[in-house]
Amino acid sequence: MLLTITTTHQPATDLGYLLHKHPDRCQSFPLSFGQAHIFYPEASIKKCTAALLLDVDPVKLVRGRSSNLIQYVSDRPYVASSFLSVAIAQVFSTALNGRCKELPELVQTPIPLIANLSVLPCRGGEGFLRQLFEPLGYSVSAQGYILDEKFPEWGQSPYYTVELQNTVTLSDLLSHLYVLIPVLDDDKHYFVGDDEVEKLLRHGEGWLKEHPAQEQIIKRYLKRQPKLTRIALFQLTEEDEPDPDGAAEKQAEEEAAVEKPLSLNQQRLDAVVAALKNKGAKRIVDLGCGQGNLLKKLAKDGYFHKITGVDVSYRALERADERLERLSSSGNVQLMQGALTYKDKRLLGYDAAAVIEVIEHLDLPRLSAFERVLFEFAQPRTVVLTTPNIEYNVKFPSLTPGKLRHQDHRFEWTREEFQNWAKGIGEKFSYTVEFQAVGDEDLEVGAPTQMGIFSRK
Ligand code: SAH
Question: Which of 134, 187, 213, 376 could be disulfide-bonded to 372 (CB atoms 3.0-4.6 Å)?
């Protein structure tokens, strides 16, 4: 497996300083899975190319594992994969981390660079390769290969010879390669530990957050492990907020203050509990349970057998835990950290899901992911879901006109908007839906809270 990096920034041989590898020497480094050789096929003032030749030892790869044919015919020794990322991190670690004592300014300077990868598996094809690199400013050229000329019907191989050109810092180029090579390779057999999240976020710093294929990158990099993907996505989207949990707490108080005169919260919880009982639901999962208002009520009520609260906020769950602990009847309540926009096996096996004042906290583009997680994968018999009725906001004396009830609300819907959405869900996922107004109903603007009760057909 060969990676070359070329620059025409002059004097081009400065590349040797940036990589901490002298252009006149050929160096070799042992790695746990083989040997990395560094040499310079070309080193002149005008143009300099460094080559990293990775000699992956196929025997080392299978040693210690039960041998089977697949391992012996594996492509791993010959293609760019996470082994190349490991090699980059080991033999070019100073350059990857953007350090260079001799040329501290050049480290920070975008310079013309070309990376060539002799064999890059691109699962998802050339289109996906472009989706990954072009938003980062690369011009991409890729040569594909048909699997076997004698059998054209076998089609294209997933392997490409790829050239990536950009004016970037060397450290950025190496970071992009470090993360995106395993993403393209999408090999499912490689072990991923918890520290991979940290590595991904570190090497993705400054570009992953804005990358349009961010979600696919994270999912594939973390080998589609939902738990790790969730953690990474969450950390990435929340990192601007120094204390997201603290802010959520404060905002929840603000919302309660706006709605307080009606003690709307109580009326809402009563309506939800009544709807759950009406449907005969005894095993309840409360999605986006927050600090456990509903959980507490369900735990106190002898009707419910199994009660689980799920929230993405650890702080909210801790608070819920404290509040529940004070209840002697809280033994049948379980709390789990989870994001509602990712499929989660733990959500299976409940009679009903309660989703109380949660959807308006989801970004609209993520709402469809939540819909699938709940109505397509978890599929409880009943879903009781509430959300504010924006029409009613004119009735809140403390709310500035045009503002939503809560800083974190991404949207609030009119009755028509909510009902259209809910009916659409019913059609898509085979649920019937009834609507109920919660709180004092005004002739013109309706009630403050709208509730949808979904029943699986
Ligand atoms: N249902 C509770 C809390 C509503 S506030 C009540 O009625 O009191 C909304 C809650 O949804 C917050 O606790 C927030 O942490 C949670 N939340 C927002 N987005 C989420 C997501 N993607 N996954 C899981 N929980 C989420």
Answer: 376
The length of the chain is: 457
Residue 429's domain comprises: 247-456
Q: Does ligand 1 come within 6 angstroms of the Cβ of 312? A: yes
Q: From the CA of 204, how far away is ligand 1's center (Å)? A: 27
Q: What is the pLDDT of residues 166-179, one digit of tens each?
A: 999 999 999 999 99
This prediction's pTM = 0.52
Q: What CATH number has the domain bearing residue 151?
A: 3.30.1610.20
163 lies in the same domain as 287: no
pLDDT at 252 over 80: no
* 184, 252: one domain: no
Judged against a pLDDT cut of 80, whether residue 231 lies above it is answered with no
Ligand 1 atom closest to Cα of 268? 7
Q: Collect all residues with Cβ–Cβ distance below 8 Å to 334 and sequence separation of at least 6.
A: 306, 307, 308, 309
Residue 215 lies in a domain: no
By alpha-carbon position, which residue is closest to atom 9 of ligand 1?
358
Identify whether 216 is part of a domain. no
> What pLDDT is stored for residue 329 in this prediction?
62
Q: In the prediction, which pLDDT does 243 show? A: 46
| In-domain check, residue 210 | no
CA trace torsion 321, 325, 329, 331 (10° rounding): 60
Q: How many domains does the chain have?
A: 2
Atom index in ligand 1 nearest the CA of residue 286 equals 1
